[in-house]
């Protein structure tokens, strides 16, 4: 069983206090892991409108949100643009992407958080200072000692984590 990602959890708060970068997987984290495919091949996904305020609050508290997606898809770009956050796509190695982001920003692993949900997130989750999975994460990343949101991917998990980290960074815990 994973610990809950809550500011009142001392173990979570200790790690969250150091966070300056929150890297987010897209599919299954910012979406509910469903895809709608139209006859012409276009895709659409379901995201939560809760996320926007949480991402802005996190930024104001001093931690940068950033999307890292394994797949290249226009919906990722569109959502990142709407939320006014940066993203990188078509990333086969999320740890390498994180190393690059850390080098650009002068950060170390303890200052990085990652919110994931599946096997392609496992190495990144195992590398960062604050590793969190969504409530409905695939079983392959469960029971690995990662923190867990109470909400599912695409249903407010990002907002929940942003608020929890921001609360710690703002000193409101």
TrEMBL record:
TM region positions: none
Pfam family, one: Hydrolase_3
Presence of the UniProt keyword Cytoplasm in the record: no
Example of a GO MF term: hydrolase activity, acting on ester bonds
InterPro entries (alphabetical): CMP-NeuNAc_synthase, HAD-like_sf, HAD_sf, KdsC_fam
Family membership: Belongs to the KdsC family.
Subunit structure comment from the entry: Homotetramer.
Entry protein name: Uncharacterized protein
Taxon lineage: Bacteria, Pseudomonadati, Pseudomonadota, Alphaproteobacteria, Hyphomonadales
């Amino acid at each position: 069983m994973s610990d809950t990602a809550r500011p009142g959890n001392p173990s979570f708060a200790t790690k969250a206090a150091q966070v300056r970068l929150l890297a987010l997987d897209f599919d299954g984290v910012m979406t509910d892991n469903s895809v709608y495919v139209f006859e012409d091949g276009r895709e659409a996904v379901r995201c939560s409108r809760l996320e926007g305020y949480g991402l802005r609050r996190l930024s104001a508290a001093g931690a940068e949100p950033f999307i890292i997606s394994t797949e290249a898809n226009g919906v990722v770009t569109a959502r990142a643009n709407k939320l006014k956050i940066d993203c990188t796509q078509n990333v086969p190695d999320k740890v390498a992407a994180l190393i690059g982001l850390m080098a650009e920003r002068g950060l170390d692993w303890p200052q990085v958080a990652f919110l994931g949900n599946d096997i392609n997130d496992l190495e990144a989750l195992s590398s960062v200072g604050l590793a969190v999975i969504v409530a409905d994460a695939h079983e392959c990343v469960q029971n690995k000692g990662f923190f867990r949101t109470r909400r599912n991917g695409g249903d407010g998990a990002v907002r929940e984590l942003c608020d929890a980290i921001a609360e710690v960074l703002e000193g409101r815990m």
